[in-house]
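Quick log. Single chain, no ligands specified.
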Amino acid sequence: MPETASAHVDTFARDHMPSPDELPEFLFDAPGLQFAPRLNATAELLDRRITLGDGPRPCLFGDGVAWSYAALQERVDRIAHALVQDLELVPGNRVLLRGANTPMLAACNLAVMKAGGIAVGSMPLLRARELRTIIHKAQISHSLCDIRLTGELDAAAADCPELRHRVAFDADPSQAAPGSLGALAARHEGRPFSAVDTAADDIALIAFTSGTTGVPKGTMHFHRELIAACACWPAHVLRARSDDRFIGSPPLAFTFGLGGLLLFPLSIGAATVLLEKMGPEQLLPAIARWQASVCFTAPTSYRAMGSAIAAQRAAGDAPDLGSLRKCVSAGEPLPAATRALWHATTGIQIIDGIGSTELLHIFISADEAHARGGATGVPVPGYVAAVLDDAGQPVPPGQVGHLAVKGPTGCKYLADERQRQYVQRGWNLTGDAYRVDPDGQFVYEARTDDMIVSGGYNIGGPEVEDALLLHPAVAECGVVGVPDAQRGQIVKAYVVLKPGHAVDDATTRVLQDFVKQTIAPYKYPRSIEYLAALPRTETGKLQRFRLRQGSGAA
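-> predicted structure:
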């Protein structure tokens, strides 16, 4: 449990921490992991850079934006003042952050934590139904939302009385419409904001992830954990430099993106490029345009970009990637063929890794010199890992078991009984099946739960089932992940239609479009197969393993 006096006036998050016996064991014996009792993540990541003389250095780039560290600090301080003085934020309040990757969204994240609030990221594609669940679960009192994304939030807020303060911002910081965050912040120009004296173990971030039941889990992270994450994988495996320029596709709402595109570059005084659209077709020219040197994206993106480079090179029109020197992959298993393609087209060996929202970022990885096709790597300094059997005992090398991890970060679900599933005997059980090869490398086998990992996104099958079942044509359905060469997995739905509805392509398109309008579009079933009945046990439980095998009803 928390060890020091909290700065939080609103104690909701601390009051809903797991009990002491449900927490994982935390390890702080590695260098750089000894923290003072009082710590504010923004003060450590941003204000400290100013005291070190980095104020004039480039920090954040975006469309029409180029902020130095000093400019970012000034923007963060103005937003923090607006939160506290205009929006009545008190330490411990939860603040929903909603927007595409922009410098303004990054500033909002840092300002919330500097003011002692708890940042709660949300994917731009989430619909009102999903936002409503997050708002209720975390009892969110404030929201800062890109003005272009307010529609779904407004719809959700109609049923969320706890959300008392909603303010829109423009991705272009020069815009300041009346009542907007920009207008409020402008009132505080030139006024430094002293970071709230938070405890190192005060909650700074709640990152939501969908589990196998489809019910979102709020993963809570201390201020010290954000700094600990910077001291582990980036320092020992990535080994970026202060003159690097980071770029990538993961949203800041994902901890993969928050770490890779904000926390890690700030921690070493580097710069980062935040662009709203960063699919493979945009990322490749953006690397050349911005002369980026460190890239974060998913395996599917590396494969698409590698193929594009090969085609452009054959046509005599290859992009200039001379600035690029580090490439990081996470979010889904990295196929050996994708690794080989990227190396062949760029000469760069991808740094692979596995992390989780529960542990904040990557905890098993291998640097370029030790990367091996088909293997993830070894535990990052600061973490220990093991492969365990069902009884929690280590299995012999080469045998598949449950991946278990300990380190300076760990799972703390917000008021969720699934804490006891993820944390057992002090270990974080990630839900991944792994084996350890004779050379000590950890090799991924499969997910041990029903999570579908498609194109770098984690998708809970039951959540898609819930959306499909809202359509009047659907009687029953089961959703699983099936292998796909491009995306790793795709969402496949097995549907039993109600009488009177045709089994044809038109029905499939209607159901797919319906899901896209009900939940985030990337979760929709790319394949739908129709059955007369779903395979179930005698007690009525759905046999998902039979759906994965392509089996229908008995």
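The longest helix spans residues 69-86.
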